Amino acid sequence: MKVLAVYGSGRKEGNSSTLLRRAVQGARDAGHQVLEYEVYDMRFGGCTGCRKCKEGGEKVCVLQDDLRPYFEELYQADAVLVSAPNHTGQPCGPMITYLNRHYCLLDTDWNVKVKPGIKVAGFFSQGQLDEACYQQTYRGFMADYQRRNMELIDILVHSGPTPAGERPDLMQRAYELGKGL
Ligand SMILES: Cc1cc2nc3c(=O)[nH]c(=O)nc-3n(C[C@H](O)[C@H](O)[C@H](O)COP(=O)(O)O)c2cc1C
Question: How confident is the model over 26-46, as pLDDT tens digits?
Fold first, then answer.
């Protein structure tokens, strides 16, 4: 199985990345191939709405930036694991920009170009102690993958001041999620 792991925090040892890295370990232990992307090391812009991915018939977004290799791999991928910190009540800005670019997976008639059933999971972190506080927001973020015929496996939320790495319950869930892909 080919797994794409997209780390969405500028804090590479931060909470959301720590959880995702644990899931990646599980996936590798299960024998899966994992390709990793650090969004804060990548240079890319927002969708310009040029629609060359639609009327132009282009398979992936024509913007020549660091997201292009990711979209090319997505056509061969079986799973996508994404992480993001909560910034002002939603996944951080670069991850919203990244998600917007998935517009290129739809054709003129809103048909999805990638194969159906790619598994997706989200790993989010927030300062707010109440874990349920932003649940709707995270569900909304992951729903955009589901609208592209992907299958949502789970959403893990780290909340509050205890670092994710010191939360054995969450770390175990993350590992098992990756191992069970
Ligand atoms: C710019 C910014 C805005 C934030 N806004 C919120 C917020 O609205 N709600 C919240 O619960 N936490 C908020 N936080 C706290 C982070 O979500 C929290 O520290 C999280 O653990 C960071 O995840 P990371 O370690 O994966 O980067 C904010 C942090 C930053 C830097």
Answer: 999 999 999 999 999 999 999
Q: Label residue 147 by pLDDT band (50, 70, 90).
A: very high
CA distance 151 to 116: 8
Distance 99 CA to ligand 1 centre (A): 19
Which numbered atom of ligand 1 lies nearest the CA of 158? 21
pLDDT (0 to 100) of residue 71? 97
- Nearest atom in ligand 1 to the alpha carbon of residue 8 is 26
- Protein residue with least CA distance to atom 23, ligand 1: 85
Q: Assess contact for 2 and 32: CB atoms under 8 A.
A: yes
Q: Is the CB of 127 under 6 A from ligand 1?
A: yes
Decide: 104 and 60 in contact? Cβ < 8 Å. Answer: yes
Q: How far, in Å, CA of 130 to CA of 126, rounded?
A: 9
Q: Ligand 1 test: best mutation among 95, 126, 129, 133, most atoms within 8 Å of CB?
A: 126
Convert the pLDDT of each residue in 65-117 to its tens digit. Answer: 999 999 999 999 999 999 999 999 999 999 999 999 999 999 999 999 999 99
Residues composing the chain: 181
Structure tokens at 104: 């290129």
The CATH number assigned to the domain with range 2-179 reads 3.40.50.360
